[in-house]
Design brief:
The chain has one domain. It contains 9 helices and 4 strands; from the N terminus they run αααααβαβαββαα. The protein has helices spanning about 10-25, 30-40, 50-75, 80-85, 95-100, 120-135, 150-165, 205-220, 225-235; strands at about 100-105, 140, 175-180, 200. Strands 2-1-3-4 form a 4-stranded antiparallel sheet. Helix 1 (about 10-25) runs parallel beside helix 6 (about 120-135), helix 3 (about 50-75) runs antiparallel to helix 7 and helix 3 runs parallel beside helix 8 (about 205-220). Its main location: nucleus.
């Protein structure tokens, strides 16, 4: 059965439930595949009704949340000292990228505010993943551990696909990224962008996820133009 040739309310409820189940179970790649199918079907004007639009919106937001959750799962929660000791033999990079660290802060209160998702199903997703998301509070992004490097590369590919396919979707501001000099202790709530040499990165959410994934893969941040060039040359 081709789900997107029907417009019945029960079928759309089934689709919403299926997307929620996938998100709750961490099926990021399946959600990505559903988004690809949704985009192709939604280009058909005959299917551009409000119910289809809600499914498209739900699929896109679920893809975004699932990507953030997956990145959070492999982001090392280590102190600067322990990571530097672990990577003591790594080659030194004298560039600006080595002098400042990329920090991520998740606005978890905003993750679960949705007008087009079933509140009961969304609560189940929140219950499953909120402990993971709550750990990412002004967290320095280091290179993923050896056992998570393959996952980091997969997430970089997924983040690049999300960046390319989400240009027409309005997304919430769930993620904040900061650059700060090494050794600067970040407060839970930064009041200004210049305190302690901190720079807030004012880029779109898809670009933030790309920067996060790239840093997990390489162990240092890069300007978004360099990240995009890397993805264009290395991700097919």
């Amino acid at each position: 059965v081709n789900w997107f040739t029907f417009s019945s309310s029960p079928l759309h409820r089934c689709l919403h439930q299926h997307i929620c189940n996938l998100e709750r179970n961490g099926k990021l790649e399946t959600i990505e595949a559903i988004n690809e199918k949704v985009r192709k079907r939604f280009k058909n004007p005959k299917l551009s009704n409000s119910s289809c639009a809600k499914v498209c919106r739900h699929a896109s937001v679920s893809w975004c949340r699932s990507l953030i959750i997956s990145l959070a799962l492999i982001t090392p929660l280590q102190s600067e000292q322990s990571v530097e000791a672990q990577n003591h033999n790594a080659s030194e990079n004298a560039s600006e990228n080595a002098q400042r660290l990329l920090y991520v802060d998740l606005q978890t209160d905003e993750f679960w505010n949705s007008s087009f998702e079933d509140s009961t199903q969304l609560k189940q997703v929140e219950t499953k993943w909120i402990p993971v998301l709550n750990k990412i509070k002004n967290t320095a992004i280091w290179k993923a551990s050896d056992q998570n490097l393959d996952s980091a590369n997969t997430l970089l590919r997924c983040a690049y696909n999300f960046f390319r396919e989400s240009s027409c979707v309005t997304l919430p501001t769930w993620v904040k990224l900061y650059l700060a000099p090494k050794g600067v202790a970040l407060e839970p709530q930064l009041k200004t962008a210049i305190d302690g040499g901190v720079e807030v990165l004012d880029v779109s959410l898809p670009r933030k996820l790309l920067l996060w994934a790239y840093t997990l893969v390489h162990g240092h941040w890069a300007h978004i133009s360099a990240v995009l060039k890397y993805c264009e040359e290395n991700i097919k």
